[in-house]
Design a protein that fits this description.
129 residues; alpha/beta; 4-stranded parallel beta sheet; 3 helices; 8 strands; P-loop_NTPase
């Protein structure tokens, strides 16, 4: 059995690349490799490029000793599910685990120029999405 495929899915800007880079660093003993979704940004070429990448990952014995981390943004619709099916098929052909993860962010409150009155923040609190 070869090393797993990790798929990090999430909206643009949630930190997929940052987390994937750190993960690959942590997985360096397992020869971690990163394939960032910006390499596959042109929609008409995506399927062709995925097919080429996936075939290489299946056929190349050198990649079997590497954990491969992909970053991506796939929605929960027919198109997104069909793309994930391609990842699942590639992992099955590679005889490895497919480890999906979904990153999301939550609304947070950030204080900007917060004056303290009686020890508490009272003004200028902004809500970020």
């Amino acid at each position: 059995m070869s090393f797993p495929i990790i798929h990090i899915n999430g909206y643009p800007g949630v930190g997929k690349l940052t987390i994937a880079q750190k993960l690959v660093d942590l997985l360096s003993p397992s020869n971690g490799k990163l394939i960032h979704n910006h390499l596959l940004i042109d929609p008409p070429l995506r399927r062709t490029l995925r097919s080429v990448f996936f075939d290489a990952l299946v056929k190349s014995h050198d990649t079997m000793v590497s954990v491969i981390a992909f970053t991506d943004f796939q929605s929960n619709d027919a198109l997104g599910r069909s793309v994930i099916a391609e990842y699942l098929d590639m992992a099955a052909r590679r005889h490895c685990s497919f480890v999906p993860s979904l990153l999301s962010v939550v609304k947070r409150r950030t204080c900007v120029d917060c004056p303290l009155q009686n020890g508490s923040v009272t003004e200028n609190v902004q809500t970020w999405k």
